[in-house]
Amino acid sequence: MPNTSSHYFTPQTPLPEPGEIHTVKWGESTFRFATGEGVFAKSGLDAGSHLLLQTALPSLAELAGDSLVGDLGCGWGAVGCVLARELPQARIVLSDVNPRAVALARYNAELNHLKSTFCCCGDGFSAVAANTFEAILCNPPIRAGNEVMLRLFENSLRCLKKDGNLFAVIRTAQGAKSWQKRLKVLFGNCEVLQIKSGYRVLRCMKAI
Question: Half-sphere exposure of residue 110, counting CA atoms within 13 Å on the CB side?
């Protein structure tokens, strides 16, 4: 029986085998994703992550070859896998605190024959060197609390290269406006790129 009292941001052991397989269409590509109990959006690609990708990808299309892009709080890997397919010139680093999610993300990258991905388990990008990423995408774990979210965003700032961008999607009803203000203080800037279906996509640039 799954532990229904746990949350997707609570570390859990990998599943003995992947759960249900979902098919996701993105442009001309078709992905197959395995999910499971104890991970975020186990029923398939969620609306927030879809909007995040839809909004951020046009800004990332011109990235230079061998750029590093981070999928922060990757879950079972949907965002990172789509990035790997749509940005063949980039390398995608997927990170999550939940070993179960990371195992599924790694499985899904292999299932979709994506060779430019690297999956790691840890507290956000706390173990990543400063000035590493050209961009970071994040659908943050709101229910983990403000302290956890702030730590994720602070590490994002540290890990971005100069002029690199953080793209984050947050529900308006779950504090997106407040987080825009806090991110503006942290980064010195924060703009709303998209408002749709109860979500806001925010972009912050590392200016120095």
Answer: 8
